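Justification of computing resources. Each target in the renewal requires a structure prediction run like the one illustrated here; the chain below, 177 residues long, is used simply to show the kind of job we budget for.
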Amino acid sequence: MKATIIPALAAALIVASAAAAAQTSPPATQKTDAPFVTVQPEGQWLASRFIGQVVTNHAGEAIGDINDLLFDRSGRISTAVIGVGGFLGMGEKSVAIPFDSLSFSTDAKGKRVVTIELSKERLEAAPSFKATEKSFYIRAKEKAGEIGQKTGTKAGELRDKAVKKIEDMRGERSESK
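Resulting structure tokens:
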């Protein structure tokens, strides 16, 4: 009888140990010692402050602004999308460049400066970048561009009507004299 109790007891202990280990061990994908960052580290920028940042060339000329950033699968920034040309976002085109082609510094007043070794003409001549994802920012910018074009067209039509009306009024005055 003792010979059958010991193997059964050993098997029960093995099963109980495995069950207890499964209940107390965290899943393999869960990190229990993840550090938390409580203050923005010096020398690091918030992405929200990066978007819209003016990009200059080495001559100090403003040649565009950062419209977006592309991240690779590892979470590193791989590409900067720069808006060049246009005025107030209208007529602007997006050009994508490798992120590591940008240099970062601060001026004498401590203002952040983003520089690239390309001329404004070179960026304006570069091929346009087309995003496959549409963020809220991109959709709003496209909608604003559409509204701007419609507004320009309507303003042109109203101007033409006003010019015609003025010409008609001048014609009526000269006929009545």
